[in-house]
Amino acid sequence: MPTLCSAVLILYCNIMKKTSKLALAVLAAVMALSSAMGQTSGSNSPFSRYGWGTLADESMGFNKGMAGLAVAMHDSLSINRQNPAAYSGICAQTLVFDAGISLQNCQLKSGGKTVNARNSSVDYIAAGFRLAPGVGLSLGLRPFSYVGYNFSTSKPLDDIDGYGSKTTSSSYYGDGGFRQAYIGVGYRPVLPLSVGMNINYIWGDYQHSSTVSYSDATVQSLTRNYKATINAPTVDFGAQYKYKLDEKNSFTLGVTYGLGCKINQQAKFVNTQSGTNSSNTPDTMRVGKAFALPDKVAVGLTWNRGNNLVVGADYSVEFWEKCRFPWLRGSSGLAVYEVGKGHLRNRHKVTVGAEYVPNPRGYKIKDHIAYRAGVSYSSPYTKTGHGNDGPEYYLVSAGVALPIVNKYSTRSVLNISAQWEHAASRDLKALKEDYLRLCIGLTFNATWFNKWKFE
Fold it and tell me: Which tens digit of pLDDT belongs to each residue from 424-453?
């Protein structure tokens, strides 16, 4: 970790010393990693076996240090995809590029054993610019969810048939995930009010497999495979209203609504039994109209004191309980694969965060460094194979925004955040996950559309 931090500082110093061409080069390198979104799961969590997998963090560089505080955030030099109304505030003659990556260590604890898993992910790529006075546009790409795990267990069986004790082994594997592309517009009809809309497209696939085998080869093993490919459009809306108390203090209220949709793609289940003495033909089951995405509602409030302090809170709920999802149930000793509702849970999330800038009007770089901190809690949206609730997530984060100043740009920012996240199910206390995550994002503000003047 110290070596990584040193590398980040060196990168920042180089950007400060050189022209904006280096910043663009760094941004281009991060963009090149976007192809990894379709290849790297970004997850080592056994909890990603359930539902759509582990839902990805929606936050970007400017609010990762605030645990994702976003619904009422409005910044003219950054892109807030979580509330499209904020696009209306993008500065004139400015093209904003924003990209970020995360490096994380996941510590899994179960049954007295501890395993560490490390991976990285591209968190987001986005761009935004002003179309007209009070009208801004943004487009980008981000992960929607991750599926990635590979683990096994074994246990001895009592000798019940007189042929000696046996051992049974169970292995579980999952891979895949979903991505989300969006384009959105924000509009400010009157000074205190902004409204906006995002059009999203979600696509991807998953595969899960489980195998139960025995040390006695004459006993048949059982393998179950689940596969699906999904693509679906969604729409979400947002609004923000700013109320000014006096010259220094103001409040901003934000609301968003995401429109869910039914997805008509199929899900497939393949059941295979095999052994040394016999091999059965796989039993394949397909179900149509197997998925749906939930309606979502979020509300947020921030308090701004001058230009140097922002404190706020968000609350959101996603109505997963009403969504269709395929599941396997037993009926008269036979496995039945079917689609139903109620196999997921409504997800609630609460976030509190703050940002402090020492002196926005100062002449020194240290005066413009933004210090951020936040906490959040998310309730589970999945249920386990036994009908118990999935994991709850607790997040604590802190970060800084380092200004990039050279002769070409004074408004670009290098965002660095550290996050600690704990995931655990109240019903599956044997499994706990702790994440230590370093998030690095570059927000590059380029001055475009200027008219040339000749003398």
Answer: 987 766 789 999 999 999 998 876 655 545
